[in-house]
Design brief:
Length: 436
């Protein structure tokens, strides 16, 4: 590893819960076996390029606060950035990373130059990945930052923008495929609207459906075995985003016949913005069989913004991983830190310590979730609550599709007269408290 940006910081070690070293794992021991699998394989941590390597610390009221020697528009800057990025991934011992095209290559004058730049950096990544053994969790195209996308990519009123966006996604899928990426993500940051006064919503939804269908077709054409993921978010940057939440995405996929082809990448902060809990969104994806991956972070509960903070709430993480483990864990997905430093945290050590704390928090949450699942007290209570449905007549009512008349007849003949049963919510909440 080069002795560059991170100075003397060496690869992070597990030192156990009593360690006071801010640059040691207290709970994330990658080799620890939980439910027969290592924590490394359960959590499948990924570091995101955009917040860690690209974001300069700006906010709506102020400019850059981070001094990073790789900030600049040349290919040399892009390679310098890649060197430091791979140092960070290695220091953290995170097996995966994620990127947008615009994070990793300089913006060219046109589509051809963008593609050349992306291909050059993809080659560079390929070399670094074979040197380090690091892997790509997912790639994606940034269809929201450049001015051309100010009215959307796939849902733009201008078909030239739709074409530019489609061609760009092709190049990003090619790059992801070449790097052995395990998923390809589409987050529709500007696929939404600001005002209905200038928007034809039906047309825009059809454009988005067509766009996604092409992505799925192309995936099969090139033999990409990864999962195509949509990342829901209700708003920000657009006032109203079409991929509002998991349920909305499912309805969209059904309408365009893509529900067996596309899954979701669920982000904690986006769930909160949609007025849901993270575990709610995970449970919806599980119930509809479209769970794919997660973007891990934390939103401030008072501000109403997408604050993308590093996670530090273990009880919340435990409930989230409880849903994930209940679904059998990740397959191609993983835990991507879509989290950024506060703009005053300007030192290299802040970037490392933030991830160390986030990884520890996730590990603690997952271990708590595994104990909840293994002891089976919570799932036992749910099973018991629905046990009536296993009885012969109730089961037949569902499987033999009884009609309203049949049920009425049954109620009258058998004198059905239900007795209220406690939901036991507080007792279950108290039980969760024992694990966290
Ligand atoms: C924005 C967001 C994106 C996606 C990838 O809120 O979460 O960074 O994860 O485009
Ligand atoms: Co995200």
């Amino acid at each position: 590893m080069s002795k560059g940006f991170f100075g003397d910081i060496s690869p992070i070690q597990y030192e156990g819960p009593d360690s006071e070293n801010p640059l040691a794992f207290k709970h994330y021991n990658p080799d620890e076996l939980v439910m027969g699998k290592t924590l490394r394989d359960h959590l499948r941590f990924a570091i995101c390029y955009w917040h860690s390597m690209v974001w300069p610390g700006t906010d709506p009221f102020g400019g850059q606060t981070f001094d990073r020697p790789w900030f600049g528009d040349s290919m040399a800057h892009a390679k310098h950035k890649a060197d430091v990025a791979f140092d960070l991934f290695s220091i953290l011992g995170a097996p995966y990373y994620c990127f947008h095209d615009a994070d990793v290559r300089p913006e060219g004058a046109d589509f051809a130059e963008n593609t050349r730049n992306l291909n050059e950096i993809t080659d560079y990544f390929g070399e670094k990945m074979s040197e380090t053994g690091l892997k790509l969790l997912w790639g994606t195209a940034n269809l929201f930052s450049h001015q051309r996308y100010m009215s959307g990519g796939a849902t733009n009123p201008d078909p030239d923008v739709f074409m530019f966006a489609a061609a760009t996604v092709k190049t990003c899928m090619d790059a992801t495929h070449r790097l052995g990426g395990e998923n390809y993500v589409l987050w529709g940051g500007r696929e939404g609207y600001e005002t209905l006064l200038n928007t034809n919503m039906g047309r825009e939804l059809d454009q988005l459906g067509r766009f996604l269908t092409m992505v799925v077709d192309y995936k099969h054409k090139i033999g990409f075995n990864g999962t195509i993921l949509i990342e829901p978010k209700p708003q920000e940057p657009t006032k109203h985003q079409y991929d509002f939440d998991v349920a909305t995405v499912y309805g969209f996929l059904k309408r365009y016949g893509l529900e067996n082809e596309v899954k979701v990448n669920i982000e904690q902060g986006h769930a909160i913005l949609a007025g849901h809990s993270f575990e709610h969104e995970l449970a919806v994806a599980g119930a509809l069989d479209i769970f794919g991956s997660i973007d891990m972070n934390r939103n401030d509960y008072q501000s109403g913004w997408d604050t993308d903070q590093f996670p530090n709430n273990v009880p919340e993480m435990a409930l989230a991983y409880y849903q994930i483990l209940s679904l059998g864990g990740f397959s191609t997905g993983g835990t991507n830190f879509d989290a950024k430093l506060r703009r005053q945290s300007i030192d290299p050590v802040d970037l490392v310590a933030a991830h160390v704390g986030g990884m520890d928090c996730c590990a603690r949450g997952l271990k708590a979730a595994a104990r909840m699942l293994e002891e089976g007290k919570l799932s036992g209570a749910v099973e018991e609550r629905y046990a009536g449905w296993d009885k012969k007549d109730a089961a037949s009512m569902m499987s033999d599709k009884w009609s309203l008349e049949q049920i009425t007849d049954y109620v009258e003949t058998n004198g059905v007269n239900p007795k209220p049963v406690s939901g036991r919510q507080e007792i279950l909440e108290n039980l969760v408290n024992r694990y966290v």
